[in-house]
Specification:
single chain; about 80 residues; mainly alpha; flat
């Protein structure tokens, strides 16, 4: 996804408190950062996706937590 379009979509999702979209978009941003080998940026976006997933009790919380734990950025939690 083009960076400007992703940023606009994230802002729109924040404005409407759309947790599912925020989780999806922050995960996309993390995936794109990983493809660019920017681990710090990827973990930044993963953390945001993870927090929104936790708040929404979304099933994505578990795999997001695993991705962060695999990178040494979080402890592995049990869901």
């Amino acid at each position: 996804m083009e960076r400007d379009a992703l940023d606009r979509a994230l802002l729109d999702a924040h404005d409407t408190n759309d947790s599912a979209t925020l989780i999806r978009l922050y995960t996309i941003a993390a995936d794109e950062a990983e493809q660019s080998q920017d681990v710090d940026a990827a973990c930044f976006y993963l953390t945001h996706a993870f927090v929104f997933a936790l708040e929404a009790s979304a099933p994505e919380a578990d795999p997001l937590n695993k991705r962060l734990a695999d990178r040494g950025r979080a402890k592995r939690l049990e869901f």
